[in-house]
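User: Predict the full complex structure for these chains.
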Amino acid sequence: MGASVGGPRQRGWARTTGWTAVVLLAACPSADPDPEPTPADWVVEVPASGPLPEDLADLGLFRWDPSTEEFTWNDGVVPYDLNSPLFSDYAEKARALWLPEGGAMTYDGNDAFAFPDGAVLLKNFLLPADLRAPDEDLTLIETRILVKQEGRWQAWPYVWDGDSAALDPSGEVIDVSVVGHDGEPVAFTYLVPQRNQCAQCHELDSDDGRYITPIGPKARHLNRDEDLGDGPLNQLTRFAALGMLDGLPGDGVDVAWDARTTGDPALLGDEDLNEAARDYLDINCAHCHNPAGVNGISSQLFLNHDNENDFNLGICKAPGSAGEGTGGFSYDIVPGNPDESILVYRMVTDELGAIMPLLGRSLVHEEGVALVSEWIRRMEPDDCE
Amino acid sequence: MRRLALVLALAAAGCPTAGDDDDSVPAEPCDAYAAPCTYVDADDGDLLDVVNSLTDGTTVLLSAGTFAMDNEVTINGVSGISLIGAGMDETTLDFSGMTVQGNGVFAVGDDFLIQDLTVTDSPKDGIRVEDSAGVTMRRVRATWALGPSSSNGAYGLYPVRVSDVLIEDSEATNASDAGIYVGQCVNAIVRNNLAARNVAGIEIENTQYADVYGNTAEDNTGGLVVFDLPGNPIVGHDVYIHDNTIRANNRANFAPGGTVARVPAGTGTFAMASRRVEIANNTYENNDTGDIAILSGLVVESDESAWAHAEEDLVGDPGVLTYDTDGDGNVTNFRTHDIWIHDNSHSGSGTNPDTSDIEVREFGFLLAVLFGSTPVDNVIYDGIGESAFDPDSAAGNSNDNHICVATSEESFINVDAANLAAVPQLEDTYRPPPPFTPFDCDSLTGGAIQLPSMD
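Assistant: Here is the predicted structure of the two-chain assembly.
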């Protein structure tokens, strides 16, 4: 049984052979007896300015076949993955990037890489029919595109219906039902963000004004091995070898915690626990909660992995204008006491108005809550009074 | 794609009708506005399609009627947008059916105008404008249909980190935090608004150069308050609160949490962690805890280091002030100083301080115990930071914080909060007759309040 996807429009759902196999397709020929046109038949066409095409297929980046449930990436479109991914209601992600002919990213040790005009970052969101089998029975809901035009990133949402996806700048609010971790049906609301909401996570402030930036393509997030059919290979090394990344240093590249290795956080050593939790908060919260986040400065809560100020990290910090978001608690983090920490409350609450992250969470990320709770529990106790 | 059913006003063409079934839509609305202008009809228009496809300088006209929204109305990446309804009682953006999180209207964009509409039942804030320059809210209402409830959104009208903001002729009711919340702004005019049945009616927080006048704050928990919060890199100063009516703010505190939950019911005005504030010519009536309190920031955060900022991190400017600093050269803003109170009228207040929660709202409890059956004085000063205190003689009191109560019709008490006995007694406080020496100054250090200068 596939995920039931309802809401404003009924959408078809798709049966897949599993995401692991899908990743491999980047380099493997499809085994489909009735194959899609080969990538050679289509051309990537990215407008230099203005809106993207109504039909995602017209960008020529990839195809999704709902009958075989396989992605086929066009030549030059390179899938990638992150060490610590953003939680999005247990949706699986399939990320890829494309650079124009001759274009390359420029390495940066801390921030997102610099990209040439015409660059495209894409992220597909697939919901599993059963959360206990997250790689199977996936429905492709939406594709979010970041495209760099005239020196600035633009964000565009596409929503899928069967084997095609249409540009949908106003986003969608979709009623969804899946089988939950306990085997019981879980109904929730899935948000495809409107175009302006993309900026709520992707926008930073600077002396030269606000600007949209990618979040994922940073050295420490990309610094991991992935197998695209050519054997396990470090993604940064691969990009460099493909001529898509300039300036990669030979060593000293930071690496974020690999969320796949977290397991039971209670079993992690203190140092690993701290790293795992800080990187979880970094990717899930710090896109707003950083000193340049348009949507996060107001709070003065900074959860970026390299913030070293305990107050701004939330320790014994009374919230500024959290409104109803406190859950009746007084401090963002009460060391040793996750159950009275606002940070945890906002991860577990389903109160509209109090949910964090701001967008894209209807379900509780149980593993994330366990991790952050254990991190707070293991701090030197302090009642903050 | 959803069908676009709007009328786009093209540069020279006025407002041609578009779509196959909306030929009844009048062409006129956009005629009065310069292009680009877009008219959206509540019956069939899709406002979200419009706001996600804006170009700079667009006027978006909303028809009369109710827009049933399932997601927030967002403005981002464009400047000079005007969102104009047919009137506060005519055009309603209704978010009661929203099942995802969001504000009502959420704008990030310079030169933004929102006018003549009502926003109701937003999960978060009613109208939130962040990190923008040049914002006007005129004849707008933010409310929640349930009436005062802790499940309502936090703020009604909420400009935050905005420079040059004007809020006028508007209403904010039933917010679970503040009705009108001017936060971390530089240059703000807040005039002729109504704030009612909120926890806090009007809040001016970490804001520089604010002129707040002609407003009515009634039936809130607290009426009209000014404060800095710890950790915010903008030091509030130069706030002029005059000619407002602040009455019967006695509603039981219904905040679900946060700093505002600590406000006792019956509070008229307080200035906390504030400097260069003038409170003049206001009408205070029937605020049961008290009319005006002057409080140190240490009352809400006793750790002075939480109030320290490296100078290079500061936003705004000090104006005529010299900022306080700590031993490490960091700027601090917990101290409340240079407060000038004069020519307010007071009646019926201070007769029943809020004793509903001794831990959370201890200040109300303190006043109740201290005053007993005596009405609480019009102006209550916590005295924190004064180098000398004497309950019995003017000469024994310092006025290091330059607190000025300049009108003999008002009454004044310094409760010396830092040294209160377990059961505080009025005889341990300094409660002078007029002219309240040494608190009888009648000007601010550095001269008159600097009013916001807006282009």
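The radius of gyration of chain A is 21 Å.
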